[in-house]
Structure formats: C-alpha cells, structure tokens
Amino acid sequence: DIVMTQTPLSLSVTPGQPASISCKSSQSILPRDGKTYLYWYLQRPGQSPQLLIFEVSNRFPGVPDRFSGSGSGTDFTLKISRVGAEDIGVYYCMQSAQVPWTFGQGTKVEIK
Amino acid sequence: EVQLVESGGGLVQPGGSLRLSCATSGFPFSNFWMSWIRQTPEKGLEWVANIKPDGSEEHYVDSAKGRFTISRDNTKNSLFLHMNSLRADDTAVYYCCSTATFWGRGTLVTVST
Prior knowledge:
- The complex is a heterodimer.
- By secondary structure, chain A is an all-beta fold.
- Chain A has strands spanning 4-7, 10-13, 19-25, 38-43, 50-54, 58-59, 67-72, 75-80, 89-95, 102-103, 107-111.
- By secondary structure, chain B is mainly beta.
- Chain B has strands at 3-7, 10-12, 18-25, 34-40, 44-51, 58-60, 68-73, 78-83, 92-98, 102-103, 107-111.
C-alpha cells in the first residue's frame, strides 16, 4: 500500500499570511492515462471532506485561486497564498493511483 | 445540484450485518466509479471499496475483503454497501463518494454490545 505522510500535522496561521502543506508518498505516484491521481481535500468542522485540488494541480470549480497544488513523483504540496478564516479545518491529501486508495493523516489549520 | 445521501447506519452487535445505501442525484451516476470511504478519529480517512460504472469490477481494502460487498443500481442512481461479520473496528462514519469528487454527509455505524 502507498503510505501518504503529511507535514506539518498542525498549522497556526495569521490571517492574510501564506501556508504550505507537504504530502509525501512512500512510492512514486506514477501517471496513468496521462493523469497523476493526487488530490487535496478540506474538511471543515462538522462537514464531510470537499475537493479542492484534483490531479495534483487542478482547482475544482468554485475553489478560490489562492489555493494551488504542485508536485510529482513522491512529493506534493498544497499552498494557500493568503489564509482566511474560512480556510480553517483539516486538509488531506489522497492518492487513487493504486488500490487501496490512501489518505494522509491530515493537517489541522487554525487561525492565530 | 449534486447530492449524495447515505442511510442505513446504526448500532449493531459484533458479528452482525448492516446494509448502507447512498441515494444520488445531480450527476450522471451511471458514468462514474463510486466509492465508500470511512472515517474515525483514531485512524482518519480510510477508503473501503469502489465499483466500476457498469458494476463489472469491484475493489476492496484488505480488511473488508470477504465481509463487505459493494453494489449499485444504475436505474435508481443508488450505491450500496453490504457489511457482514461486523467488528468493533468497523465503527466509523461511512461516506459515499463519486469517483474522488463529491462526498455525502456520511452515516454512522457503531459496532458494539
């Protein structure tokens, strides 16, 4: 199974400041059909996860452009250019390149 | 508007069975792989199973193999998870998910005496 490791596990950010979350996979997530199946989700308190980024770097419709994803191979990053109060919650990376799909442990983002 | 609504969760004794359902609307259900994903505070998010659009292919996490069966009814835009031989560590919120995109709000399964 591919193990997904996120760092940091928690982040306290001043509003308007940037934030970055790393996600490393235990095996290279290889492209399939020209796509790399690496996703980022935000789970707000009391809600189910919602898709932010699909296939490494594509923002899901409606997701603000302050969110960006990058990476390849085993190293992936989610960046928030200016964190706002509505961005608090737990962020997860997930790979669906190989069964079983696997998730990172989550990164809890709080506002200072 | 895309909607996925899970039902069928509840309290069940160890060794018991449960059938989860997911009613969907707002997207072409029969074109999408569908998944069940569960979440606990201790283990976080865990993918459980998925099924091909036409129902001809299924995949399971090792802990679910032989005990859980995923199925779908494309005429009713519905997804199911039949769970047998339930154990305490199956206790979780179970989410229905279309491909890796849209998630339902989840249904709580508690396995306990």
